[in-house]
Amino acid sequence: MQSMSVEVIEVGPRDGLQNERAIVPTAAKVAYVEALVAAGLRRVEAVSFVHPGRVPQMADAEEVMARVPRVPGVRYAGLVLNGRGLDRALTAGVDEVNAVVVATETFSRRNQGMSVDDAVRGFGVIAERARGAGLTVTLTVAASFGCPFEGEVDPARVADLVRRCPGAQEVALADTIGVGVPAGVRRLAEAVGEATAAPLRFHFHNTRNTGYANAVAALEAGAAALDASAGGIGGCPFAPAATGNIATEDLLYLLHRSGVRTGADLPGVLAAAALIEKELDGRLPAQLGRAGIWPPPAH
Amino acid sequence: MQSMSVEVIEVGPRDGLQNERAIVPTAAKVAYVEALVAAGLRRVEAVSFVHPGRVPQMADAEEVMARVPRVPGVRYAGLVLNGRGLDRALTAGVDEVNAVVVATETFSRRNQGMSVDDAVRGFGVIAERARGAGLTVTLTVAASFGCPFEGEVDPARVADLVRRCPGAQEVALADTIGVGVPAGVRRLAEAVGEATAAPLRFHFHNTRNTGYANAVAALEAGAAALDASAGGIGGCPFAPAATGNIATEDLLYLLHRSGVRTGADLPGVLAAAALIEKELDGRLPAQLGRAGIWPPPAH
């Protein structure tokens, strides 16, 4: 692989828990984050500042942020969709803002309630205000690989959108519905790499079992960061289409055994996953907890 | 990817069913194979000629072989471990013999009941007899990526074993316990590629969620064939460590969308997986049947 180290960004507390049926108590969320930080993860997307009526799983975002350990070197991100979300994020004291723009018009209107043009303008305002407040700004392009309403998404369209959203210190390409394949990852990385000088981050779901292969392809294409959720949470095992993020522990297993450093500690991540498993229905999509680290740690 | 086409070898009827708790009736096995052949799969590892006391799931191997459709261009393989198994395979009329040698001494003695030296000699006899009878011979090296008793397996050790087993028309490298990662696949393909001129085939289990990334790495390293099982069967969903093969449908999804041709038909494979799911406990490890083909087929 091209990169011999990569940043793994833990998104279980946000994207994972946001998509679980269960509403996890604040204390359990905080314990999950504590375990993740103890495992050496240095960037944690901890919360989402969206309307609690729409996403009740994230209604306690401020309380979570007030209670997570503020360790030197650990940065917490909050997802925001609009100015109101940014106000909350600033008050709550996140280190990073992850602002989302959707690649397609239909998905943008249905999911964010605004046109892509309005989202682009909104991003500009969010980015300027957030950077003015000293926060790091990530631009996430949702549905970068495919849209449930418009089908295939042309990498050129994503690249064009990225060009229209300057001001991000990082560009995250999200396979929101889990349809990407490695060849598509390479095409998208190339197109977006020409549109921005910002480091690229990829966000994969393992919906069709391509998530880990996509992660490898992203790394080989020069990705600086990969999202993952401890336990692979976010896809309810009893839902018809499980759509969990790729699991942090399974990703670390693959990376570490391939000689790619992450700074994170695999047994520590397994402990975090075991903590959150108790709060959720059904078994985790992650496999490593069941199969075991290999070779087995020496006694 | 280097190869723009690859042979996908269906091993669900053999490796899949052999590792399921349920004993599937012969008629259901035959229906599964019929569906796989109808889906365009041209090589099917249909049975295993091992002692029925040890593997009761395969006790009806002769009856299965007597009833599967003999379509021009479709080749059936049977797995054999010794001369007695080869006798049965020849009588049953398989087209190919898959003969197994284990990469490590301890696993060989425990699983096959013989030393590696004896297995190498046995392979020579099997290969000569099978080729004399006009059959294609595959050498499978089990535990090529790791051994439950001896830990990591050096690619040089696998390559040495392959050199000691001439007479195979194909060399299959099996990640029997599902511990491989892409970097290891590349190392092994390189080492074994120098040891034999025979085409390389890879056999992955998705035990730790690395199976599909490994398949991509194998293709990029020049693999001619990949094993997969429709439904991803072989890993009981209720067992502590699910160890199913990579799923044929999920692999085809990844390959076809990456521009790699296989000759197989995805909806047909989904139909085969749905057939076998009814015979087994719990849900299939394959994801595509739940998530759906994407983009959705036109109406």
TrEMBL record, chains A, B:
Keyword match Metal-binding: yes
Domain of life: Bacteria
Coiled coil, from the record: none
Residues in Pyruvate carboxyltransferase domain copies: 6-270
Keywords per UniProt: Lyase, Metal-binding
GO molecular function terms noted in the UniProt entry: hydroxymethylglutaryl-CoA lyase activity; metal ion binding
Gene Ontology BP, a term: L-leucine catabolic process
Keyword field contains Transmembrane helix: no
Family listed: Belongs to the HMG-CoA lyase family.
Full protein name: Hydroxymethylglutaryl-CoA lyase
Source organism of this protein record: Planobispora longispora
